[in-house]
Backbone:
């Protein structure tokens, strides 16, 4: 595979689009997707962070996030590839390989030094204490739905504002509207 060259398509960085899914030149496969940890986390604090992450349901949330990401990216990848019967197989094999290289445990391992950086062990213990209370448990259950609803509302608002902004710009600059119409022909 040393001479393998990927074709340049709209999803390749070398074509000007910055999707970054495929590079135009072959790269040596990484043996581990996890970055090197610069600072060792105190083992007792690490145990507390792991307990907090488990209490929060972090591995489950990460798994759901990865599934949502795949459902979002899959159609975009399929559309970005040149037409052909190969597309579905290529995309399915890509995600199969991607999932084999990135799992929720690796993401938890990435979270530990970040929690260590921003929170003291006392902070972590306080959060554990809070999330074990009835209000903390209610918060844990409500946050995913709350976040999803806010994201959907923000996305809708953004789309509405974007549409209105474009209509206003085109109304103020009819020459741009004409140029856009001409380009679509």
Residues:
């Amino acid at each position: 595979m040393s001479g393998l060259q990927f074709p340049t398509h709209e999803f390749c960085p070398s074509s000007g689009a910055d999707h970054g899914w495929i590079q135009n030149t072959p790269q040596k496969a990484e043996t581990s997707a996890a970055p090197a940890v610069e600072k060792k986390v105190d083992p007792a604090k690490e145990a507390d962070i792991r307990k907090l992450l488990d209490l929060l349901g972090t591995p489950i949330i990460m798994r759901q996030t990865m599934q949502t990401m795949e459902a979002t990216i899959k159609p975009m990848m399929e559309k970005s590839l040149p037409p052909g019967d190969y597309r579905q197989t290529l995309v399915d094999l890509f995600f199969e390989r991607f999932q084999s290289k990135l799992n929720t445990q690796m993401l938890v391992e990435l979270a530990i030094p970040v929690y260590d950086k921003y929170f003291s062990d006392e902070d972590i213990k306080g959060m554990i204490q809070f999330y074990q209370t009835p209000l903390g448990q209610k918060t844990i259950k409500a946050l995913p739905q709350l976040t999803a609803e806010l994201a959907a509302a923000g996305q809708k608002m953004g789309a509405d504002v974007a549409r209105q902004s474009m209509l206003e710009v085109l109304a103020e600059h009819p020459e741009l509207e004409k140029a856009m119409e001409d380009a679509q022909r």
Helices lie at 43-56, 58-80, 86-101, 104-118, 121-131, 134-172, 174-183. The first helix runs from residue 43 to 56. Residues 40-132 form one domain.
